[in-house]
Design a protein that fits this description.
Alpha-lytic protease prodomain-like, about 325 residues, 8 helices, Alpha-Beta Plaits, three-stranded mixed sheet, 3 strands, elongated, mainly alpha
Length: about 325
C-alpha cells in the first residue's frame, strides 16, 4: 500500500511538471501563429497546473496517518482535491466554449504547420499521461490521481480538437476552401461540451463521497458473502459501508450464539475483520456490533445487546 502511495505521488509530480511545460508550449505557439484553439487549450492547461497542484497537495495530506483530531485518517483530502479539479475543468469548458463561439464570428485565421505539430505533440503527451496516471490511480484507489487522469483525458479531447481544427484549416488553404478553418472553433465547442460532462461526473462522484453515500451493491454483496462465510456468524442484522477517500469504512451488526463468552465474541470480531481485509485491502476500519442469537427465535423478538464491542486491532503478522 505504501508503494502504491509513493507511485501516486510521483505520478502527480510528473503531471504537474508536464502541465507547466505544455502550458508554455501551447500559449507561445498559439500567440506566435494566431491559433485560437491552441491559445484556448494553453489557457486550459494553465488551469491544469492549478488542478495538478491541488491534487498533489491533497494526496500528500491524505497519506498522513490518523491523529487525535482525525481518527479516521485524512482520506477525504483527496476527494476535496478532486472537487477542485472538477471546478477548474468546469471553468475551462466554459472558457473554451465561449471563445470558440466568438471565433465563429471573427475573421478566418491562417493555419500554420507549427501549430499543428504543437497540438499533435500535446495530444500524444497527454494520452500517455492519461494511461500512466489512470493505471496507478486505480491500483492505489487514489481519488486525487484519478481526477488528475480525468483532467488529462479532457486535454486529450482538447488537443485532438486542436489537431482536427488546425488540420482542416491547412487542408482548406491547400484545396482553396478557406471556410474549413472554421473547423477549429467548431471542434472547440464540441470539446467544451465533452469537458463539461467530464467535470459534472467528477463533481457528482466527489459530492457523493463527501455526503457519505453508501458503496455500490455489488461490493456490499461481496462483503456480506465474506461475513456469512465466518462460521460463528448466524445472522447479519445490518451492514453499512462508505468510501473515505482511498479506503472504505464498514459498520456491521451480526448475530452470534448468545452462549459465547466475551472473549469468544472478541475473537469472532477479529476473525470477521481479518477475513474482510484479506480480500478487500482498501477497507480501513470495521466497526462490529454483536447481537445475541438464539436457535429458533426470530431476530425481531430478541432485544439488542446493550454492550457495543468494537473491532479489535489486527496483529502485525
Amino acid at each position: 500500500m505504501e508503494q502504491a502511495k509513493s507511485q501516486s505521488i510521483f505520478a502527480a509530480w510528473i503531471s504537474l511538471i508536464s502541465n507547466v511545460l505544455l502550458t508554455i508550449l501551447k500559449v507561445a505557439v498559439g500567440f506566435l501563429f494566431n491559433s485560437q484553439v491552441l491559445i484556448a487549450d494553453g489557457i486550459h492547461n494553465a488551469g491544469d497546473v492549478i488542478a495538478s497542484a491541488a491534487a498533489l497537495g491533497s494526496m500528500r495530506i491524505s497519506s498522513r496517518p490518523p491523529d487525535e483530531d482525525h481518527p479516521y485518517g485524512h482520506g477525504k483530502a483527496e476527494v476535496i482535491g478532486a472537487s477542485v479539479v472538477a471546478t477548474i475543468l468546469l471553468l475551462a469548458a466554459l472558457y473554451v466554449g465561449y471563445h470558440s463561439i466568438v471565433a465563429l464570428f471573427a475573421p478566418i485565421p491562417q493555419a500554420h504547420i507549427v501549430a499543428l505539430i504543437a497540438a499533435a505533440l500535446s495530444l500524444i503527451w497527454k494520452l500517455a499521461l492519461y494511461v500512466y496516471t489512470i493505471g496507478i490511480g486505480r491500483r492505489a484507489n487514489s481519488k486525487g490521481l484519478i481526477a488528475t487522469a480525468q483532467d488529462h483525458l479532457a486535454d486529450v479531447y482538447a488537443s485532438g480538437a486542436a489537431v482536427i481544427g488546425i488540420g482542416l484549416g491547412l487542408l482548406g488553404e491547400m484545396i482553396g476552401v478557406p471556410a474549413l478553418a472554421y473547423g477549429d472553433p467548431v471542434a472547440g465547442i464540441i470539446v467544451a461540451v465533452l469537458v463539461l460532462k467530464l467535470a459534472a461526473d467528477m463533481a457528482r462522484e466527489s459530492i457523493d463521497i463527501l455526503m457519505e453515500k453508501a458503496i455500490g451493491g455489488e461490493e456490499i454483496k461481496s462483503l456480506e458473502n465474506i461475513v456469512r462465510g465466518v462460521e460463528e456468524v448466524k445472522r447479519i442484522d445490518r451492514m453499512r459501508a462508505r468510501e473515505h477517500g482511498q479506503y472504505i469504512l464498514i459498520d456491521l451488526r451480526v448475530g452470534i450464539d448468545a452462549g459465547l463468552t466475551i472473549q469468544q465474541g472478541h475473537d469472532v470480531i477479529r476473525k470477521i475483520k481479518k477475513a474482510i481485509i484479506a480480500k478487500h485491502p482498501n477497507v480501513s476500519e470495521v466497526m462490529i456490533h454483536l447481537n445475541p442469537w438464539y436457535p429458533g427465535v426470530p431476530a425481531a423478538a430478541v432485544p439488542e445487546a446493550p454492550v457495543r464491542i468494537e473491532g479489535a486491532e489486527l496483529p502485525k503478522d
